[in-house]
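Hmm, how's this folded?
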Amino acid sequence: MTVRVLILAALTSALVAAQDRAPNRREVTLIARDHQFIPNRLEVTRDDLVRVSFTSEDRPTSFAVDAYRIIKRAGADRTIVFEFRADQAGTFSFYCNLTSDALCREMKGTLVVKEK
């Protein structure tokens, strides 16, 4: 009986520790329309697992963040979904990196990753 109690206590302790380390999940919706990102500022917390739903409403557009080595492309009237771990605190620019559309290069936004 004592062994069972000890095993149960150890399992409970491990479960609680695993839950403490579980990442926060953050859902973000980002729209590209008329050569703009909407919203043009995204705020998350360090170590969040960020799930981005990126929709390009009128023309092919990309979403790039150099510090996170992210480059994603959504075709016209398409939505893509991707995830990344916000493991670096700071303020980072995001932008469209398509070279076929000169106005695309003017599309910019800010990703803010706050410390916990």
